[in-house]
């Protein structure tokens, strides 16, 4: 079974089967990937906390028949301070949802990955979440080629993705 390494940010997790987690990660090299973390929901799991949302890590992934499987995970940054600050947490989750909704699986976009990572680090260092959010939205729209001067970013992004972002 061939394997590969991806330095990625965990966008979201959800339960899968009895004890596994389906993890959506966003990497610089491979774009958005859905991978399986076996036994990650068990209490003595070596992967459980490492694949949680916001985790920036080196993922060692084995190619599976129908789905790739996380075999190892080495944490680089947990962004714990975002989880402890309500407004930073809300803004960070908004970024992750925006990336998840705005990209398709396997879409290679290193500039977008760098933008997300920079925005999360900026939030970590206690910058104003509203200012970081506005800058992120504008930079995201410019990368996607949908930026229109004078138009509210959430409206433009909502139109582009077909999702009402004003409710997020």
UniProtKB/TrEMBL annotation:
Alphabetical list of SUPFAM superfamilies matching this protein: ArfGap/RecO-like zinc finger, Nucleic acid-binding proteins
GO biological process: DNA recombination; double-strand break repair
Taxonomy, superkingdom: Bacteria
InterPro entries in the record: ARFGAP/RecO (IPR037278), DNA_rep/recomb_RecO_N (IPR022572), NA-bd_OB-fold (IPR012340), RecO (IPR003717), RecO_C (IPR042242)
Keyword terms of this UniProt record: DNA damage, DNA recombination, DNA repair
GO cellular component terms listed in the entry, alphabetical order: bacterial nucleoid
Family: Belongs to the RecO family.
Name used for this protein in its record: DNA repair protein RecO
